[in-house]
């Protein structure tokens, strides 16, 4: 871990820089796969699954037998934990439902917004060593609450041609009926364009490696919407001398274990906490199974000492972390001053893992500083707000003359005329 | 205008197709400009303004004298119309403020969302023949209500090196302090990367030609967020035999005058209305100053006769128009069934021009079928919702065991450990 003491503001930009994403280099390779899926459909998916996931598939859709098998393979304690997490995610996202209000802006002119679910959404759940069933819950539960009619989920099969049972169990539990064996770029392309088996959707959600990220970007240029641009996961811990170095170290480590490119940063006002945390990271690291990977990621992590809390808050807002954990004395006051972050964890008993799994908040969050412009996934991500307006005869009489003047000044006479014919 | 009677559902896709956007062809040209602005800053902008807008600029920022001059040039009746429109836009968007609710998902686990303004936003207002001061109001007023700290506006100067006075007047009225003379790709690049004069922003809004559209897409791949992908403007009118052909024709024409690539579609259940509308379009067209341009755009417009209202509604939802005008007997019932549209105008006295200028709804809306996945611009577009969670000792005691099980099953032991240290 890199220790930085009292950096000048002019140095912040360099210190807080993320590792560059080399997305341009792989764009052509990604577009080749996208185009092949677009023209050849299922056949291309099956070929790419053989090439990349080393599995020969007969068909792409997960059938009822596989769902049943999966359910039987899940331990009761995991089922109960998934149920508890789901209930909290459901409670929090259901409370985000939009309530429409009719506003009379001028007598006879009534305007309102109505929330309508995106009809078809696609969820991507990566494979790899860890089965990310928590991501299934985080995406499928709000999609279901929003009322999306068609929820499609793609995830790469393991070497036996099956999707991990915990992913299938979570999907079924969250109301997803259509699950397909497809990973990487080919899965994104399939949901963007549709194939014989996999339906085309209007918006694609979910994490993935840099190939998936680029594929989502490429299809978002024309075909579909995407949840947000993605980058490696990251946490900032803002702590003062009252924080527990044991907790802080565990939080930094839980971010670091995600992968070599993920970033964990401590911003603290206390030299003592910094030193103790450093020692504690080393102590806890020794006990972790993913030690080698975590160690690699810690190399780019930083422990930063700043002169006071105000500076610490400024630095957090400049960094705009995906996750922010505040372990300070008056953590509520500090939280009030945060303007750039994906999700904020307040106080000593709120580790990032709580939000990653089970507190109810969504774990799909803006990385790479995107928190300055993007929100994390929420119920909003699965709806659109359509505006409506109803205008009475009195309404157009009152509003019409202004519209005529405005339209005439923009030299749009037919716009003016649409009012004139109604006023006559 | 093309008349299509009782098309089969299998033909809908072809009938409702938009004209293709050839964005790939100009991508390299756009990226060249972007890169030059990125490396050379103001100097590049000044050079491009000379090349494209035929104007030699000394400086880019609009100064106080120019704002004052502009204000003096605006007729009192236009000022009053702008004031009236602004008041309605302000009323409707202010009513969209997000009210945060704290949700206790589990005893001791409290989660909430907080709306925070995007700190720096950039608004692009195209030049060309018509000064789009209404776009200034539609973007700057919600930015101001949201509380964006820095609102930057770029618009190309006319041949005398000045921005149209109505744009400057509207900008000042909506609280924009920083206005710059820059148009097209160079303006988008300036706001994405920042130059000596023009500040970098986090999100860029506003319409433009295909070059601006591609520039926004390109910078959105890495640097900034954008409001939404853009395409030519469009309207669908859904009408039955009770509708006035005079009103319907005026609505189709007010869309058609936007440009040769804009699309106006009538979907009706009444043969008689169709025929009368056709005749009325020709009659009204003859009186319009933009006759030639409007005629060109009408060539790709369509009058479609369908068998009943249910089919008409299905067709609208399949088309997902930017603007939808419903002129039918029970227009409220019909409006209830609309799921894909940008903005909906209900009843005989609600022409699209009302929403374009003054009713209060936003006129920055999803075109090109994007209404299936995107909302129009609203107060939401200028904020992010950050999630917060506060967990007490009791909260982690109740939630911790589930998190431990879930993390262990995703093979993320450091995630589990962050809970374990807190339960001990």
UniProtKB/TrEMBL annotation, chains A, B:
Q: What class of enzyme is it?
A: oxidoreductase
Necessary cofactors? Zn(2+)
Residues that bind substrate? 233, 255, 258, 323, 356, 410, 415
Any idea what this protein is called? Histidinol dehydrogenase
Catalysed reaction per UniProt?
L-histidinol + 2 NAD(+) + H2O = L-histidine + 2 NADH + 3 H(+)
Coiled coil start-end:
none
- Which InterPro entries does the annotation name? Ald_DH/histidinol_DH, Histidinol_DH_CS, Histidinol_DH_monofunct, Hstdl_DH
Provide the leader sequence positions: none
| EC number per UniProt | 1.1.1.23
**Where on this chain does Zn(2+) bind?**
255, 258, 356, 415
Q: Does the keyword Lyase apply?
A: no
Residues annotated as binding NAD(+) are 124, 186, 209
Q: Any idea what job this protein has? A: Catalyzes the sequential NAD-dependent oxidations of L-histidinol to L-histidinaldehyde and then to L-histidine.
């Amino acid at each position: 871990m890199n220790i930085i003491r009292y950096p000048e503001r002019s140095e912040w930009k360099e210190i807080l820089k993320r590792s560059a994403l080399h997305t341009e280099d792989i764009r052509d390779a990604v577009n080749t796969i996208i185009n092949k899926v677009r023209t050849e459909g299922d056949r291309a998916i099956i070929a790419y699954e053989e090439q990349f996931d080393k599995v020969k598939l007969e068909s792409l859709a997960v059938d009822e037998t596989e769902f049943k098998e999966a359910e039987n393979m899940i331990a009761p304690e995991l089922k109960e934990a998934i149920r508890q997490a789901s209930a909290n995610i459901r409670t929090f996202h259901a409370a985000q439902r939009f309530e429409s209000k009719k506003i009379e802006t001028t007598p006879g002119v009534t305007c309102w917004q109505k929330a309508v679910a995106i009809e078809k959404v696609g969820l991507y759940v990566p494979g790899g060593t860890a089965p990310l069933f928590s991501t299934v819950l985080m995406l499928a539960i709000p999609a279901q609450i929003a009322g999306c009619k068609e929820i499609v989920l793609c995830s790469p099969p393991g070497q036996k041609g099956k999707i991990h049972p915990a992913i299938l169990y979570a999907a079924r539990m969250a109301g997803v009926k259509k699950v397909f064996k497809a990973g990487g770029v080919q899965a994104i392309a399939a949901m963007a364009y549709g194939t014989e088996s996999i339906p085309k959707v209007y918006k694609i959600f979910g994490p993935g490696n840099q190939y998936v990220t680029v594929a989502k970007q490429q299809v978002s240029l024309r075909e579909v919407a995407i949840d947000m641009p993605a980058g490696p996961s990251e946490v900032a811990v803002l702590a003062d001398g009252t924080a527990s170095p044991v907790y802080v170290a565990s939080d930094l480590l839980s971010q670091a274990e995600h992968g070599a490119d993920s970033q964990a940063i401590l911003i603290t006002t206390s030299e003592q906490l910094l030193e103790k945390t450093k020692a504690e990271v080393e102590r806890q690291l020794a006990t972790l199974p993913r030690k080698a990977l975590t160690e690699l990621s810690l190399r780019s992590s930083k422990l930063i000492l700043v002169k006071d809390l105000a500076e610490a808050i400024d630095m957090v807002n400049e960094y705009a972390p995906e996750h922010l954990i505040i372990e300070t004395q008056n953590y509520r006051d500090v939280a009030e001053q945060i303007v750039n972050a994906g999700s904020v964890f307040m106080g000593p008993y709120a580790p990032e893992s709580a939000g990653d799994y089970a507190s109810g908040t969504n774990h799909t969050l803006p990385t790479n500083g995107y928190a300055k412009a993007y929100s994390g996934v929420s119920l909003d991500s699965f709806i659109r707000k359509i505006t409506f307006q109803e205008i009475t005869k009195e309404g157009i009489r009152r509003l019409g003359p202004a519209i005529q003047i405005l339209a005439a000044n923009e030299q749009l006479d037919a716009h003016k005329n649409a009012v004139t014919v109604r006023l006559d």
